[in-house]
Amino acid sequence: MRFALPSRAAVLAAAALITCTPSAQAATVYGPLPPHSPYAGPDGTATMHGDTGSSDATPLPGPPAGPLNSRRTALASACPTVLVGADGYPVALCTTIFGQTPTVHLLDPATGDSLAELQVTKGSLLGGVYAYLDNRDRLVAVDGNRTLLRIAHRRTASGGWQLYLDSSLPLAGAVQAGDSVTGVSPDWQGRVWFATAGGVVGTADDRTGAVRTLALPAGEKVANSISTAPLGTAVSTTHATYLLTAGADGTPEIAWRQAYDRGPGRKPGQLSWGTGSTPTFFGPRTGSDYLTVVDNAAPTVHLLVYRAATGEQVCSVPVLKAGGSGSENSPIAAGNSVFVASTYGYPYPRLPDGAGDSVPASADFKGGLSRVDVRADGSGCDLKWDTKVRSAAVPRLSTADGLIHTFLRNPVIPGTDATSILDPYYYAEVDPETGAAVRTKYVGAGFVSDTLQMVGSIAPGGVVLQGTTTGVLRITAGQRR
């Protein structure tokens, strides 16, 4: 089917019509965020999912009231990870469009421009997506040579900036050739936990050089990142969710395992056959009372909540019923509330090697966003609302302003579910009490503006930084800067 191209004036007029002011209601108190690891950077900006517990929540507010501004830093790269250290400098892990070379960029906090860049060895899809900032603002990642890297930045003698390799630890003896690290996160003893696509979980201590591993059951793969809390490390494979702890010498041990319904195959809009969730710690008392993922059941997926200490299932709630029921994204969770965004049918330009055919073979991207609340007495969970918000990024909840921040991919022809290379994109703020968008800003259209279900970060000063297929968007309010 062919679609008529709307004029630029029509697109801008449509954007103006749906743009409104933020809600005036005070921020809702959700409860504590997951415990802060002393070996990670600031909560809200240290990891792709905000913190080591992967809450996708932040204590920082988004843009204040006033006209919204959008500025794009063109890097000719997809930038799925944008983090911000205690020094306020954003660090982006990107992959070049041509050559698929992983590249680290240090960004100017005032403009979003790249101040320095450093290429690292190519690995898996997008060159390895998951990384975090440690307590010294160093980017911690594993490259294509299976080496644990800590990449720092500093001023040069000429007054410019430099990214450099501060330390490295080979993991090749523990991670076999052909395998790759999919997730890294620090624990409370200073070790780095990692998981591989092939289903190996390990700890690495780059102070001593000790690396210890555990192979999970044959056939189970890890396609998403991992999460850490004082209780242990959470890993979701293509078959089950685990909580692991470390033995006296750092060797991982299974505390509990919970299988989930993985459905008949990979759903359209997902990158693997199984859960699309990085497991999320949350809870009203410690911030890590519960652990949650979304399964891959057909036709309707379920939000699964477990007691983090024991693995006992608290609830299984059907979600994303109003739109497309499937998710590649980690849930937002804070206090007793969990928010799940649909990626069902999202048109990724590329899938990982071995992803396999989807079931069904194709689907429209209808969108969908659900809120589930765990009951105060822990006796179960209730679906609070279910909407058709077409989130095109991993949403983030600000506990400071009480809003969910995301980006929307709306159809060129209103009222349809079809996607095209002409689709417009909008920054959006969603009221978590109703699921309705309360403020939006048009940011561009087509491939250059595709946020590709990647994660944004809210930086100090009310600045939203969002990776796209071609660079980084910077959203601010008030006077243009």
Total number of beta strands? 34
Question: Order of strands side by side in the largest beta sheet?
Answer: 1-28-29-30-31
Examine the secondary-structure arrangement and name the CATH architecture: 8 Propeller
CATH homologous superfamily designation: Quinoprotein alcohol dehydrogenase-like superfamily
β-strand percent reads 35-45%
> What is the CATH topology?
Methanol Dehydrogenase, Chain A
Helix content: under 10%
Radius of gyration, taken over Cα atoms and rounded to an integer in Å: 21 Å
Unreliable stretches (pLDDT < 50, length at least 5) are: 1-28
Mean pLDDT: 91
Please provide a written account of the structure.
By secondary structure, the chain is an all-beta fold. The protein has one domain (8-477): 8 Propeller (Methanol Dehydrogenase, Chain A). Helix content is 2%, strand content 40%. The chain has 1 helix and 34 strands. The protein has one helix at residues 8-17, and strands at 57-58, 68-74, 77-84, 90-96, 102-107, 114-119, 132-133, 139-142, 147-155, 161-170, 181-186, 192-196, 200-205, 210-215, 227-229, 232-236, 240-246, 252-259, 280-282, 290-294, 302-307, 313-318, 332-334, 337-341, 369-374, 381-387, 393-394, 396-398, 403-409, 424-430, 437-445, 454-459, 463-467, 471-477. The strands form 8 sheets. A 5-stranded mixed sheet has the order 1-28-29-30-31. The chain has a 5-stranded mixed sheet with strand order 2-34-33-32-27, with no helix packed on it. A hairpin with a 5-residue loop joins strand 3 (77-84) and strand 4 (90-96). The protein is globular and about 60 Å long. 53% of the residues are buried. The model is unreliable at 1-28 (pLDDT under 50).
